[in-house]
Design goal:
This protein is mainly alpha-helical. It has six helices and no strands. It has one domain. Keywords: Membrane, Transmembrane, Transmembrane helix.
Amino acid sequence: MPDLDGARVSPGTRAWRAWGAWRHARPFWAGLFVLLGGAEILFTVWAPLGVVLHVGMQGFIGYLIPVVIVLCGLLLWFNPAQRLFYSLICVVGALASWITSNMGGFIIGLLLTLIGGALAFAWTPETAEDGSEGVA
C-alpha cells in the first residue's frame, strides 16, 4: 500500500504510525503512571503478612481504592475528554491509599499515582492550526 508520498509502506510501519497517533491523542504517560501506581498499591495489599506494615481499614477499602485507581488509569487512555475528573479521583485515591493500603503501596505506588494524576491534570490535547482540537 503506498504512503502519502507514493512510497510503499509495510503493515508494521502503518501499525507503528497508528499507535503513535493514538498515543499522542491522549494522556498516555499519565495513564501509564496511574496504572503502575494502582497496580503496585494493589499488589502490596496482597503481600504476605510478614511484609505488610498495616492491614488497612476494614480490608475492603484497601482493595477498592487501588481498583478505582487502575480503572481511572484505563479511563484516562480510553476517555481522555474527562481527564480532569479522573486525575482528581486519582490524586484523592492516592492520598487515601496512605491510610488504607500499606502506606500507599509502601510510598512507591502513592508517588507513581500522584505523578500520573498531575500529568493527566496538566495534559492538553493538541490543537490544529484552525483552533479545532485533535491531532495536528
